[in-house]
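Notes from the pairing session

We agreed to fold both candidates in a single pass and log them together. This is the raw record for the first candidate, unedited. Please don't reformat it; downstream parsing expects exactly this layout.

Candidate A
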Amino acid sequence: MCLIAFAIDADPACPLLIAANRDEFFDRPTAPLHRWTLPDGPTVVAGRDLRDGGTWLGASDAGRVAMLTNVRSAQAGPGQRSRGELATRWLRGDSDEAALLAHIDPAAYGGFNLVVGDFRSGVWAWLSNRHPERPHDDGAVALHHQRLPGGVYGLSNAALDTPWPKTERLKDALGASLRRMAATDEACGWLPPLTEALADRQAAAAHELPLTGVPPEVESALSSPFVRMPERGYGTRSSVVLRVQPATRPPQAEADTPRWQVQISEWTHPPGPAPDGPHAWAEQARRSETLVW
């Protein structure tokens, strides 16, 4: 993914809400959101990178969640290992947070941000192999780790909560969505703020652009939440919204009856140029899956 906003325990009625865009080269083979089984592991709901086998955002039946973005730099290139395997390693569920940290060689991967969570235990953490204060410095390779308390977070291609305009835009939309869920009148809907923000093709003003080492025209093209760079064969390939809400339980349900329902939807976007204005969402391009935790 290249843009994520997520809320952990920000509302009792929605203990987890995620909205994200995945930016990637159009020719990279990809399977859309679906259920699949990890080798010697659980069933997960996620898209899948068909070149290297990993994922960028997924959830497991066991209540684990993983989200991944790259870190932008002028010398971007693949590492020895695919970053997508970091997400599936956590989703596999055979190691805890300490074991995950112990088995990551930060020098083996290109710059990454990895958010991992265990919904059932309440453990959430952010990991990166770039220094939080110098994320675009390819020489600052070391593993950084931070536990995440409840709150609203944003992540793009820098460090966690780096206030890029598009990251702040999506965080604001996430807050608006949570407020609509809490309202007694559901008519306004909780989803439109998220889809509108994810589809926003408005570039940031020149003075708001970050300095990551890429040319200014590229920086500008990448500054909108929804990216379209057909001349480079690159752009937003898909958008995901994940919502956790109380499951319907019979009055005399057993204690181990699932308490939460997880709804995950992904919209895939065709490659090529897009018209001016916000990207138009195609309902036929939507796939949805449900988990219970």
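Candidate B (folded immediately after A)
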Amino acid sequence: MTGNPGEPRVSTLSLVRQQAAVAAGDQHTVDAAVRVLRAGGNAIDAAVAAGFAAAVTEPCLTSLGGGGFLLHRDATGASRLFDFFVDAPGRGLADSALAAPHFEPITLRFAGTTQTFHCGYGSVAVPGVLTGYLHAHARLGRIPLQDVVEPAIELARDGFLLSQAQASILTLLMSIITSTPEAANVFGTYANASGNGDLATNHLYAGFLDELADAEPGDPAPGWQKRLVEAMERNEGLITAEDLAAYRAIEREPLGFELSDASVLTNPSPSFGGMIVGEALTGAFNGRPTGEQPDAVPMLQALARATANGKRHTDNAPTSVRGTTQISIIDGDGGIVSMTTSNGSCSGVMIPGTGIQLNNMMGEADLHPHGFHRTEPGTRIASMMAPSILAWPDGSSAAVGSGGSERIRSAIVQVACSLLAGDDAAVSVDAPRFHLADDGVVQAEPGISSERLQPVAGTWPVNEWPARDLYFGGANVVHRDALGRLQAAGDPRRGGASAVIDL
């Protein structure tokens, strides 16, 4: 108890519970969530606000024109997974139109190699993020939509300083995200901002969100669907009016795994990343209490088995594992959210007049091993993304998720292992990571102890990296202990940020 003589005595526990925590991929994204939490919003409100903001502040990683997943658990333990990932397009089109998609190949130069990406109108899957945000807010949000979108409107209208991490990603993908005239017009300010510190703006997006906030319920930002379909028809894209009319955000029962003294909630089928994470954690802690860190070799072996099993379940499905961003939030009521969204590698295609860039999920050859556009229109694309929540019997909980392509599984499992072993959020996120790649080589960050590294090197070939790198993911974490004390950690590998605030 606290208080001075003669003053009311206030429980320390009640004081602690009037806090909230946020971790995300950019400081501006975190600030948007914080603002909404302080305005009385809950974790859903804050996650949606952060998502709208991230579409401005992390433009190469997420967009209202992409897809994602939001996992929510309330103070009673009730949970649900909002699936608003992308669908394969083409409802109502003839087979001949689907057989020869129209791509714009763009070759990017990385350190020591090049890679060709397929962008343009033929690369775009049916987007789900806007629908998902509106659905989640309508179902579980607490404050008006106008208040939720206001931080993003201000960022897009008034401008902001682009972070060094986002500027680096922007520079890498600039030839993609400016590959059409409208995209070049929108992201021209970003190009200047990444070079000389000017403010990045997106006035079309600010106007779209203004319209969204003022729209009648059930008629969000009227007209964008019509403009998108018309643009697709003019440019031989595959999204149809039937696709947009049929698209739904889907509420699913989260996939659950029981460990020795903790539980894991994660992303269920048709995506497979959650299954990999859950099975890997179960295998890593097999016969071991969760209060002890698993040895590296059994953990990597469990990851390898879970990955092979997960891929068998998706042999006949297209899978998306491209660039992503993660938002994790705990509110003052005990609600917790883990949300992961993606825009693929970007398409350069905009929804006309909105400032929203669309995804390129249908244009990545490694995401469609059986050939482009062989998937039945309307099929929900599977994903490696695995927003997850850990829960302990004493009431402790944590939200974790990550970007990072196929490294998503490795990042989440290793951060979760650290949290389950009792490490705090910052230690869990900062700890150097392994990744057992599909070619059988273990990629290892610098700083791993010889005691932990040597058994791995005796089992697989190991490539030790000279510096920590965004290759190893972007795991953003929030944690609440049994007394209600909060922690938050953004992953420095991708410019992550965090905040624990008083409400």
